[in-house]
Amino acid sequence: MNKKWAFLTVSAIFCVSFLQSISADNILLLVTDDTRFELSHITNTQNALTSLGHTFVNTGTSASGETFSDFDQIWDLRPEFALSVSEQNAYNDYLAQGGRLLLKGEKVTSGFTEFQARDNSIINFVSLSGGGTLVQQSQQDQTFTESFTTEGQQLFNVTNMPSLSVINPGQLSVQSGQGFLVTEKISGQGSMVAWDFGDIAGKNNSRMVVIFESALNSQNGNTPQLIENFVTFLGASSPIPEPSSFVLVALAMLGFFKTRR
Questions:
Q1: 37 CB contacts (<8 Å, ≥6 apart)?
Q2: Residue whose C-alpha is closest to residue 166's, from 106, 118, 116
Q3: Average pLDDT in the 230-255 region?
Q4: Are 172 and 193 in contact (CB under 8 A)?
Q5: Domain of residue 254, residue span
Q6: How many Cβ atoms are within 10 Å of 254's Cβ, its own excluded?
Q7: Higher-pLDDT residue of 154, 143
Q8: What is the pLDDT of residues 72-84, one digit of tens each?
Q9: Same domain, 70 and 195
Q10: Cα distance between residue 249 and residue 19, in whole Å
Q11: Which whole-number Å values give the CA distances from 172 to 76, 98, 179, 191, 212, in the listed order?
Q12: How many domains does the chain have?
């Protein structure tokens, strides 16, 4: 009997651990094709997530009617839609529950005021959520390469993507010390910012990424690697154990006491 319980305990722990390691994230997408610049936005994002084994629901321009807690991650990649007050509050509640969020801003091109409205709403949301203060720096009308920062190298897979190619980016700087630049063109300025566990005030189990000009269109060869980095960073295990972790501990204790009898 003792050997049987020991075997069952070890087997159960192995099975649960294995299932945890291969579990796919369910992602809520708000993805639209910017008809002027990024015609392959939807296709590239969905194909990359499918190839990585994740599931998703793409609601297009609105997530109305969706229950955010049903999703492991939310990716809001709508370049022409400013975040409404209700959306900002809903995202803030989602992060408070340990959610993982990706927000895409956009380069501000002359004549397209909706892009600036989008960027401003993201910057406002970051402050609302407890992520600190972001400042959008001047635009540069050119394509160039950003290097990963030290923090970016630690948390993103830079072996499959040593640099980030960006087009007309809205350069960001982090003013409050919360969050970190993932990539930068010059010291202190870059187009991608992330928040690790504990970086967002009062939301220790949440992670977030903001990128202004993600270049997910077909012109950018980094697209699959960039999406892989996003989904891996956002899908990492939180420092506070998930319920399944307590199941493992309970099984281990049960097996221990059974073998002691």
A1: 79, 217
A2: 106
A3: 66
A4: yes
A5: 1-24+245-261
A6: 14
A7: 154
A8: 999 998 878 899 9
A9: yes
A10: 16
A11: 18, 25, 12, 6, 8
A12: 2
Pairing of β 207-212 and β 192-195: antiparallel
Q: What is the mean pLDDT of residues 115-119?
A: 85
Same domain? 6 vs 49? no
Q: State the CB neighbour count (10 A cutoff) for residue 55.
A: 12
Q: Are residues 221 and 113 in the same domain?
A: yes
Res 139 pLDDT > 90: no
Residue-level pLDDT at 209: 94
The answer to whether position 240 is within a domain reads no
Q: Give the burial class of 124: count Cβ atoms within 10 A of its Cβ; 0-12 exposed, 13-18 middle, 19 or more buried.
A: middle
- 68, two tokens: 């955010």
List C-alpha distances in Å: 189 to 134, 183, 184, 247.
11, 8, 5, 44
Which comes out higher in pLDDT, residue 49 or 33? 49
- H helical segments located in 137-180: 150-155
Task: Tell me the pLDDT tens digit for each residue of 148-161.
Answer: 889 988 888 777 67
> Tokens standing for 126?
């970051």
Are the C-beta atoms of residues 72 and 65 closer than 8 Å to each other? no
What's the pLDDT score for residue 202? 93
pTM score, whole prediction? 0.79
